[in-house]
User: Which sequence fits this backbone?
């Protein structure tokens, strides 16, 4: 676990949850799932795929909590490789491709005009050109490329003048967990840390149904820092259009046609045995977390499938993940494919 | 499915680490003797090679009774009524066999004597043991294996219980996140789904099982190489009884009995086209026949899904025990047809007459030249998918036309209607469109109904009726699938999708 992950784990320990109108310390099982997500985020990114199967007495909230821990922990660590990847993708776009640019508290649509190098004395820096109004071009430093997001629909019309839409600031809880700077980019820059596959209604209700708080000490007083699980998970499908997201959700009953905007998720969380059995082959590039509820009809079949995969792998894993100690009632198995 | 409250989920994890199982071994010597005599009779018939179809029926009836008495509590009146029905049935079916198989007479006499003695002393011992335990506990649930035993058991519990704190449920109800302070389980634990023990929903589980029956738990699948410190806490197992007891095993559906019933009640009208079907045993003692074609569709209710996908057309190949299938239980036949006819209005009779005409001609042709020859002729006429299984589907009254025009043209050529292809194709396309609209209309009616319904009833009882606000759409009933036959049988198309109630003789 990296130091940033350690800090996050410590911050999670201090969380409280709203239960029957009162703030109560996070139940052990909720804490475990958040920390499990944090642990998964530290898996190495390599050509190997990791599969974690979690056998649970009920799947309620498990996937959303794991997902929240995972995306938070991914945000809390520096990922220059991902920014480079994003810049490469921008470079590959045709001229005038539609994008969204987010800056401070506003977002606006724009057209990508290309790249140019700007020299100031001996210093050279590369800039990205964005047309944001009919006669206005904005040049953005390459290091801020994360604020530019691809739009999947085209073409767009640019107005004569564009104020843009105001962006909601990050919630206090997010700031408290990962700090102001990271929290700002968290709500302004999209990323794809995980795909949640299950019942959309259940995932939505679970993520908006959990209110969390962390009490920070400020000037000798306890300051409540509130937020919802959905503020941490930031699922594209549950946010207003064009909001920056960190994860996407897919119905296990729907079709496979889901737009990942050219991004490969770090992990897929399969909410339930049926989701796992139906979709795990379609997400071969991502790490897999299968939440298997023992009361499900397909539970046995899903365990059989995980065991079959385990039988096919070599037994010498290149990486042994550190996993939090599960609460009673939970059983886990991981494998490297 | 609604989202669970955090407190309920916390309770689920709490009981996972604290579940305590107490075993109550119930003595009821007469039932043990009856059970053993049934086993002796079956062994004798098998060893003497006397188990013909008629004896299999008798054995299914006896084993069915033994199972029913093993998995639910009875009072004396209930036991007597149950036993008397079986005695009457046996006297109807067995009189002559006493003479045909004299060697079995001794065993049969033993069964009859033990059967007659069942309503005597001890027949309500399980019920009283349960009531005594319930009296000590404030509230909880009684868990019975079959949904069909819920109302019966609830009436007994209500009668004996001093408070109304005990509700009777079946295992499916334990799939929710609701936990109960006490769970009284009736019957052999091994017959229950593994999650009753591996994902418990009560801190205290009391098992009420007859003393001579194995108390071991059902086998649960396990990870091949679990993480060392992860576990789900196992409650106390009754090791003293593992593997001991009688030969009573989990009852299985006797599909041969159902096949016999289907064949016996078939009209077998000469020349009537038949369809291959598979038998689906449904909760509450119901049975239906659904097309064997794995790509044909049926409406299902999947309570695991969100509202968007809860009601949907699912391919037969994806049906499995535990799912809910929606069948028309009033009006008979395919519920889409009358509504589709109404969509077509006056045009319906003309359209249906053309549909019937090409199908009748095709059926007649196949019966005249045979399947292989008919397929070859279709190929010669340009059909792209001329294969026996496709031909069987085209013959079905439930298919309206082929997908590919070339297949349909070939069919009409073969049956002498090639010159009218354009007219037939247009009319069949209109029927398909009407079916689509009818399906959409009925789905909307159903959705409205279901939105207003408490689906926990379906989860608990395994059966739930929906009265649609349209007299022609009739009523629909959702049934939980209990078992699906491996083999198929040929039946009249009108029998497909009909739900019929069977008696206890379908259990082996």
Assistant:
């Amino acid at each position: 676990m990296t130091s940033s992950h350690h800090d996050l784990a410590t911050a999670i320990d201090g969380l409280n949850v709203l239960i029957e109108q009162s703030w109560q310390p996070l139940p052990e099982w909720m804490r475990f799932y958040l920390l499990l997500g944090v642990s998964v985020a530290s898996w190495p990114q390599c050509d190997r795929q990791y599969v974690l199967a979690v056998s649970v007495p009920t799947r309620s909230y498990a996937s959303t909590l794991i997902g929240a821990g995972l995306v938070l922990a991914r945000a809390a660590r520096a990922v220059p490789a991902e920014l480079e990847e994003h810049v490469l993708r921008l470079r590959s776009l045709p001229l005038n491709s539609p994008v969204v640019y987010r800056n401070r508290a506003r977002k606006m649509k724009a057209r990508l005009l290309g790249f140019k190098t700007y020299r100031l004395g001996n210093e050279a820096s590369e800039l990205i050109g964005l047309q944001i109004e009919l006669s206005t071009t904005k040049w953005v430093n390459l290091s801020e490329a994360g604020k530019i997001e691809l739009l999947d629909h085209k073409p767009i019309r640019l107005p004569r003048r564009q104020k843009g839409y105001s962006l909601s600031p990050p919630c206090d809880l997010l700031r408290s967990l990962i700090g102001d700077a990271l929290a700002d980019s968290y709500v302004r820059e999209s990323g794809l840390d995980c795909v949640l596959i299950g019942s959309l209604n259940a995932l939505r209700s679970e993520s908006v149904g959990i209110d969390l708080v962390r009490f920070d000490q400020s000037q000798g007083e306890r300051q409540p820092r509130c937020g919802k699980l959905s503020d941490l998970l930031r699922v594209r499908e549950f946010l207003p259009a064009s909001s920056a997201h960190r994860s996407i959700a897919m119905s296990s009953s729907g079709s496979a046609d889901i737009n990942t905007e050219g991004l490969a998720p770090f992990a897929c969380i399969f909410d339930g045995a049926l989701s796992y059995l139906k979709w795990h082959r379609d997400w071969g590039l991502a790490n897999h977390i299968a939440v298997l509820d023992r009361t499900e009809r397909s539970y046995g079949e899903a365990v059989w499938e995980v065991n079959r995969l385990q039988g096919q792998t070599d037994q010498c894993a290149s990486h042994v993940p550190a996993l939090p100690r599960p609460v009673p009632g939970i059983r886990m198995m991981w494998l490297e494919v | 499915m609604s989202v669970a409250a955090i407190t309920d989920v916390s309770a689920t994890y709490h009981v996972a680490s604290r579940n305590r199982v107490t075993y109550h071994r119930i003595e009821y010597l007469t039932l043990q003797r009856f059970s053993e005599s049934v086993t002796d009779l079956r062994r004798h018939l098998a060893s003497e090679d006397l188990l013909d179809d008629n004896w299999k029926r008798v054995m299914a009836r006896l084993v069915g009774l033994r199972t029913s008495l093993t998995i639910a509590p009875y009072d004396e009146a209930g036991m007597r009524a149950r036993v008397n029905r079986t005695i009457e049935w046996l006297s109807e079916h067995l009189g002559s066999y006493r003479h045909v198989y004299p060697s079995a007479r001794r065993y049969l006499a033993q069964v009859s004597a033990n059967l007659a003695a069942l309503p005597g002393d001890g027949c309500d011992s399980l019920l009283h043991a349960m009531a005594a335990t319930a009296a000590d506990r404030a509230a909880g649930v009684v868990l019975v294996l079959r949904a069909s035993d819920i109302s019966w058991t609830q009436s007994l519990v209500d009668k004996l219980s001093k408070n109304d704190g005990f509700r009777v449920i079946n295992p499916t109800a334990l799939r929710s996140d609701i936990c109960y302070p006490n769970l009284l389980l009736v019957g052999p634990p091994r017959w229950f789904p593994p999650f009753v023990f591996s994902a418990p929903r009560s801190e205290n589980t009391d098992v009420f099982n007859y003393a001579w029956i194995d108390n071991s738990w059902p086998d649960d699948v396990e990870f091949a190489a679990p993480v060392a410190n992860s576990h789900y806490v196992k409650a106390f197992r009754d090791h003293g009884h593992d593997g001991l007891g009688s030969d009573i095993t989990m009852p299985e559906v006797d599909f041969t009995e159902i096949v016999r019933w289907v064949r016996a009640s078939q009209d077998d009208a000469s020349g009537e086209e038949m369809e291959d079907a598979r038998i689906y045993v449904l909760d509450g003692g119901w049975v239906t026949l659904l097309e064997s074609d794995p790509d044909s569709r049926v409406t299902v209710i999947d309570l695991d899904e969100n509202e968007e996908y809860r009601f949907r057309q699912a391919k037969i190949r994806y049906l499995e025990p535990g799912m809910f299938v929606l069948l028309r239980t009033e009006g008979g036949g395919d519920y889409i047809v009358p509504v589709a006819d109404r969509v077509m209005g006056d045009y319906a009779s003309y359209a249906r007459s053309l549909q019937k005409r090409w199908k009748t001609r095709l059926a007649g042709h196949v019966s005249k030249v045979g399947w292989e020859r008919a397929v070859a002729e279709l190929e010669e006429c340009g059909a792209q998918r001329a294969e026996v299984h496709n031909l069987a589907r085209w013959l079905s009254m439930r298919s309206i036309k082929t997908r590919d025009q070339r297949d349909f043209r070939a069919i009409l050529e073969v049956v002498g209607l090639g010159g009218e292809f354009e007219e037939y194709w247009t009319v069949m396309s209109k029927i398909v469109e009407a079916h689509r609209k009818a399906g959409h209309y009925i789905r909307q009616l159903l959705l409205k109904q279901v939105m207003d319904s408490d689906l926990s009833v379906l989860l608990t009882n395994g059966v739930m009726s929906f009265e649609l606000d349209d007299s022609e759409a009739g009523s629909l009933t959702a049934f939980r699938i209990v078992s699906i036959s491996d083999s198929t049988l040929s039946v009249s198309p009108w029998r497909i999708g009909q739900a019929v109630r069977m008696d206890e003789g379908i259990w082996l």
Q: What stands out?
A: Confidence is low (pLDDT under 50) at residues 239-245, 268-272 of chain B.
